[in-house]
Amino acid sequence: MSDRQSFERLDAEDSLASVRDLFVVPDKVIYLDGNSLGALPRATPERVRALIEDEWGVSLIRSWNAHGWIQYPRKLGDKIASLVGARPGEVVAADSTSVNLFKLLAAALKLRPGRNVIVSEKENFPTDLYIAQGLTEMLGTHELRMVTRDELIESIDDDVAVVSLTHVDFRTGELHDMRELTRRAHESGALILWDLSHSAGALPVDLEDAQADFAVGCGYKYLNGGPGAPAYLYAAERHHDAMQPPLSGWMGHVAPFAFDTDYRPAPGIERQLCGTPSVMAMAALEVGLDILLDVDMDVVRKKSQRMGDAFIELVGEQCAGLGLSIACPTDSAARGSQVSFSHEAGYSIMQALVARGVIGDFRAPDVLRFGLTPLYLRHVDIWDAVAILKDVLVTESYLRPEFQKRQLVT
Amino acid sequence: MSDRQSFERLDAEDSLASVRDLFVVPDKVIYLDGNSLGALPRATPERVRALIEDEWGVSLIRSWNAHGWIQYPRKLGDKIASLVGARPGEVVAADSTSVNLFKLLAAALKLRPGRNVIVSEKENFPTDLYIAQGLTEMLGTHELRMVTRDELIESIDDDVAVVSLTHVDFRTGELHDMRELTRRAHESGALILWDLSHSAGALPVDLEDAQADFAVGCGYKYLNGGPGAPAYLYAAERHHDAMQPPLSGWMGHVAPFAFDTDYRPAPGIERQLCGTPSVMAMAALEVGLDILLDVDMDVVRKKSQRMGDAFIELVGEQCAGLGLSIACPTDSAARGSQVSFSHEAGYSIMQALVARGVIGDFRAPDVLRFGLTPLYLRHVDIWDAVAILKDVLVTESYLRPEFQKRQLVT
Q1: pTM of the model
Q2: Cα A12 from chain centroid (whole Å)
Q3: Given A96, A246, A278, which is nearest B228 (Cβ)?
Q4: Domains along chain B?
């Protein structure tokens, strides 16, 4: 695979090639950060314009019914459900990932009285840990047990109420075995919550098959919903009736417009709603979701794996001896839709790459992270990105040892 | 004042008349529901288009810095601060009103250990009650004491940690004396939280003068931020350092991009942030705020009071004997920016009004509510609205007693 032509051939044969045309991809940019903020779907500006001008501007308050605004959380939830192996009525789009984590962790603790531990990984995405810390701090009766990946299984003992994990590690891209870990949690009588922010829309997810209890995820990465898009949450139907929403806002009330004095939770997943969601943000998210619902997630996954393997192979060929270490699994089956490398001057290297139009991101302390988004990336983008990476490593003067030291101090 | 010409004269002399041109006001509509969803500012579509196409579409992830996205919560917070008598750094735009209520109530309880009661009014906006109910339910150590307006002062005893009130009653428009109630709460050693959803942007608010501890409010009513706009929260600076955020998400971390394992709250108001906000929604809210920052809130208040007085007076003249009872204070100094009337066929009457282009709203059990938004309402709108209301009351056959009964059953 080590010439550009072979990558062009892969693009010519790519059944997803035309999907790229549904996105705005700026000239002179190779965008390897769709796992931080997905690209703009071409249909989004017109959809949001119509929402603003033709719905809000004309129908005003009547739009909640006339234009179905009130249905958005559930309607988008059902669309997301089909991407993550959930059933209609098990997912809602709402709030942020962090807020949704809080709702589900708090509910999970109530479902397991007598157990006072939340288990999570030290390497989990920080907000997942922070939210658990805030919750346990607030309650004063529970603790967060943070363990390494290796200690995970043995840490799930009889004290554990809920295990909270991210499916794909945000730094290394390492993929957890959702089915096996869910089984181990259940075996110990614990519940499990999966953060799908780095997997939904990037690879097939099957929550029902895994028998997962809860999940959350974000709308602005692989779902291409726009900056700060609504997040989502999943709760398996078997838990719905017993779940007490700690954030019991009016949108989760059985009859929000009855203006009752007492909170009575809506049946089903709707009780997980809290306040009024941004309708603009919902409309934009729907455009991103509709693109995903039209593609085959197995095809997306295969292209992602192929691109990741090629990236790693090319770096091995082109950048040998230039100080990069691989920081993700080489086996594509164990890897999410990203590749990662570490380098002690990682921050500076990423700055240089971005200046040359190769946009990945840096994750402290030393990780260069490149997200792979098969919907709008071409195989030649991988070739070109690695060529530029090599060029940066070879030519940038600040990579000389004496300059590195200065960089690391600042 | 009882001819249309006198209302036209008021409009001709109105220094706010030109502000109406900054809004889209649909033809054949008299919009008296800006207290549910504010009208669309003319500048909003272009601002949101630019955000989507020129920022997200072109700069992608780099926009967080390049286009100042990361500053939105604080930047808009400072703008809101100037509308509610707070200082820069005491307000952030974030999440929904409900979520912000939860954050502040939970923090307030921690600030008053040994006190286990939240006091609120039975007639408070339901989500304010529901959130307090969910919080106390979750903690299991505190209770919500719901009292009538008359019982309020005597209910604030030594057990009370925090008093949670809405400044303007959502049904009746009745205005609380913020300064006096804050004083009474403090006298008992309690904290106080004000929901400004129905006051900020409609009348002058001075949180600092009142010595208020906390406040929340919504962006989509008088602030004209669009459906589900970001809400905001205020905390007096004196409390910042001691506040523990229960929703401790990464946006409230002292260094979100350090990806630390442990939550360390940001200094100041930023620790009240949780997850990633919708940037589109923030951009739209800013357009609404900028209009408000350009007008004199005392002038807005005076016009609102004049419109409300005229509405009540006209209803008295035109609709006498047609079954309406006044359901708001007649003294405009005691009233927010709305008028309310009750009628046992209120729901049907509002349906008929809406069908004729007079958009107010109905609030169970029997309240017809008309919001007054001086930025885009004319005095003649009040005249015309009451004329149509009279016509509905006189001519609609379903207002006959035998039909009313059928309506009330369905």
Answers
A1: 0.96
A2: 29
A3: A278
A4: 4-16+296-409 (3.90.1150.10), 46-293 (3.40.640.10)
